[in-house]
Design goal:
It contains 14 helices and no strands. It is an all-alpha fold.
Length: 338
């Protein structure tokens, strides 16, 4: 059975804490020992500590857990080989913190409309099954009948009550089935991808690309090696653009020009990269570009929420208004006849 992959939040916290210990002069084994003392039931930490205690390097111990992303494994190995493990750990911590932030924002953006939808359904069901029958009794005592629309809605409510157990059972089964399917990586990725849309997916991939380039360049890799490594963090479409960028560079194009022609980054980011390439601060600029893209992603998610919320509120208001209007018209006719 394959080991369960770690969440970005866990990797970010682990790398951040290990960076603090390693940068202070401690070995990774000593740092893991300290962390394990504070988290005695952490199986991953225990595996890492046991392997490093036996003489394995930290990168070997990370691979042995089979729980870390391949990119994290290779970056940690690179950090050990170049003697920059502390900076790599810090970069990984920041990268996976941004990954977690984006994931949480998307999760909340999906959950919020669902909560509003559930509230809408509950309100409508209460109106149909509880409120309309009360109005019907009142109208009966007054010797009038509700409008045809109101009677139809009340009959629907009566049917809901009659078959409530069947409806509730079907809803529960569908909810459980949806939850199980959503847990499957393939289904989860498709649902999230549909929610993101093409523009948001491109922004996330560009952020991943810039972050990967910042880490690999600062760790001592050359540009082509960094581009090859960054493919592992991007989607297929961006991977093709990176390959195109590499081909342009082989034909004599400079890195910044190739990035711009391959359309991996937007024009503004490409211009920033052109300036940084001349000043030798490419890794710093890439890190800033990644942070900018992360902010763009969060803003785009907030924008999606701001679009969905008023639509659901309007739908709720229209449905409730229609139900009330259908019972108020006969009431008005009774009042005017008195």
């Amino acid at each position: 059975m394959a080991a369960k992959k770690l969440k970005p939040s866990y990797i970010s916290r682990l790398c951040g804490e290990l960076h603090d210990t390693v940068s202070s002069g401690m070995s990774t084994n000593d740092g893991l020992y300290m962390l394990l003392n504070d988290n005695k039931n952490d199986a991953v930490l225990e595996s890492l500590f046991n392997d490093t205690s036996k003489g394995c390097t930290f990168s070997e111990a990370v691979k042995n857990t089979k729980s870390f992303p391949v990119y994290a494994e290779e970056m940690i190995q690179l950090g050990e080989q170049t003697g920059r493990l502390d900076s790599v750990l810090q970069s990984l911590s920041e990268y996976y913190a941004r990954q977690q932030e984006v994931a949480e924002n998307i999760k909340n953006a999906v959950a919020f409309p669902l909560i509003l939808l559930v509230i809408l359904i509950v309100i409508v069901v209460l109106l149909l099954t509880q409120v309309l029958p009360i109005f019907n009794d009142v109208f009966g005592q007054l010797g009038v009948t509700m409008s045809g629309a109101a009677v139809t809605l009340m009959n629907i409510g009566s049917a809901i009550q009659t078959y409530s157990f069947v409806i509730v059972g079907a809803v529960v089964v569908l909810a459980v089935l949806a939850a199980v399917l959503y847990k499957l990586p393939s289904t989860h990725d498709k649902v999230v991808s549909v929610f993101k849309g093409r523009k948001l997916n491109n922004q996330i991939s560009s952020s991943n690309f810039a972050s990967a380039m910042a880490m690999t360049i600062s760790s001592g890799m050359d540009i082509d090696e960094s581009l090859e490594m960054s493919k592992k963090m991007c989607d297929e479409n961006t991977g093709k653009k990176i390959s195109s960028c590499q081909e342009l560079m082989r034909s004599g194009q400079s890195f910044d020009k190739a990035i711009q022609k391959a359309e991996i980054l937007d024009s503004m980011s490409a211009r920033k990269l052109t300036i940084s390439f001349q000043t030798g601060k490419t890794d710093e600029t890439m890190k800033k570009i990644s942070e900018d893209y992360t902010q763009k992603v969060n803003d785009a998610v907030d924008e999606k929420i701001s679009r969905v919320e008023p639509v659901l509120v309007i739908v709720m208001s229209v449905i409730v208004g229609f139900v009330l209007f259908s019972v108020m018209l006969p009431m008005l006719s009774v009042i005017t006849s008195i």
